[in-house]
Amino acid sequence: MTTVANPTQGSQHSSTSEPRGRFVAWIWIGLAVSAPFHGILLAVLSSIHVGVGGTTGTSIQTIEIALVDAEPLSPSTGSTSSGSESTPEVRAAETDFGGAEFMIAGLPDPTGNSQGDAAVVAEGAEGLFASGGGGGSGGIGNGMGGGTTFFGVGGRGRRIGYVIDKSGSMGIDDRMLQAKVELVRSIVSLPDYASVCVALFDDDFITLDKEGGFIKCRDESVGRLKGWIMDVGQGGGTNPVSAFQFVLSRPERPDVVFFMSDGEIPPDAADEILRMNRRGPNTVIHCIAFGQAAATAPLRRIAAETGGTFSVSASRSSP
After folding, report:
1. 155-181: per-residue pLDDT in tens?
2. Is 181 exposed, middle or buried, given 0-12, 13-18 or 19+ CB atoms closer than 10 A?
3. pLDDT at residue 250 in the model
4. Cα dihedral sign, 300-104-180-234
5. Model's pTM, two decimal places?
6. What percent of the chain clears pLDDT 70, i.e. is strictly above it?
7. Alpha-carbon 292 to chain mean position
8. Of 24, 97, 196, 245, which is least surrounded by CB within 10 A?
9. What's the domain range around 207?
């Protein structure tokens, strides 16, 4: 018997084994490529050293945070919510001024010429205890510089001006002596890098250094200034305009001025002083009415418009 091969079966077997061979070949090729790649990757990873908290030159800093109970906020005692920036603070003077004895004076109603009362009302200064000034040892003025007080009112700055009444009425009840003692004490309390300009006025004014105006608060200069102040006598009228013109026209303006008067100043004096102050950077002017006879209205106005304080002081021997 003769067997004849089926050509169809041979071709089917050949076509089935051919794809399988290609698949196996691709597997071997993949293994051949993958093995070196993974070997290199493992070698690189094994060469990297990861240190935690080791000595690699970089220290780990620890920050400790402590939580404490918050302190409640309390309202400032120097102002009230009803104040405005243009309203001066009215304070009674303190009672101890380095040897000169004073009593706290009551705050009288505005007195003086007509320009004063109307101006005070226009500036809102009728709210007399509203904030608008400083006072106390912190005071008002340039925040940089030394601080001092004058009749209980505080001021701070590198340049301090004093415009002080020396009119004839300052001879009553030893007011002039008390003012000079307090003036010297205020100057002596300043640091030596501060400068002062003192102008004592009646109808005109006098000062120790009319050329320069400001004097450094160094021992020798302060000693000379003290001697000059204590030798000055009172007399004449009450007009501070020329004194302010001198103080405010210095090449470098004062940061703060203490202005004290015991009488009634001319009707246009407040206008003139404020006009001069507006010609340059604002100088804070603290106004002190010395004695019950002082015209308080124009002083309140000057304090209100310059950001200063207004206060009243009287000597113990005053009626």
Report:
1. 999 999 999 999 999 999 899 999 999
2. middle
3. 94
4. positive
5. 0.60
6. 60
7. 33
8. 24
9. 94-124+133-315
Other beta carbons less than 10 A from residue 132's beta carbon: 25
pLDDT at 32: 80
Which residues are within 8 A (CB) of 284 and not within 5 positions of it... i.e. 6 or more apart? Answer: 140, 141, 155, 255, 256, 257, 306, 307, 308
- Residue 285: pLDDT over 80: yes
103: left (phi over 0), alpha (psi -120 to 50) or beta: beta
SS3 content of the chain, % helix, strand, coil (to 5): 35, 20, 45
Q: Give the CA dihedral 253, 160, 126, 178, nearest 10 degrees.
A: -140
Distances (CA, A) of 43 to 33, 34, 47, 51: 16, 14, 6, 18
How far apart CA 30 and CA 39 sit, in angstroms, is 14
Measure Cα distances from 126 to 101, 153, 305, 306, 311 in Å.
30, 20, 14, 16, 14
Is 296 contained in some domain?
Answer: yes
Domain count, the chain: 1
Q: Between 271 and 41, whose confidence is greater?
A: 271
The C-alpha atoms of residue 3 and residue 9 are separated, in whole angstroms, by 14
Share the mean pLDDT of the chain.
73
Residue in this structure with the two tokens 């000379």, named with its chain if needed: 224
Q: Is 101 helix (H, G, I), strand (E, B) or coil?
A: strand
In a domain? residue 74: no
CATH number, position 98: 3.40.50.410
Measured CA angle at 292 (ends 109, 150), to 5 deg: 105
Question: What CA–CA distance (Å, rounded) separates 300 from 270?
Answer: 10
DSSP string, 136-190: TTT-EE-SSSEEEEETTEEEEESEEEEEEE-SGGGGGGGHHHHHHHHHHHHHHTS
Taking only the tens place, the pLDDT of each residue in 49-92 is 544 444 444 444 444 444 444 444 344 444 333 334 444 444 44
Amino acid in position 185: R
- At 21 the pLDDT is 73
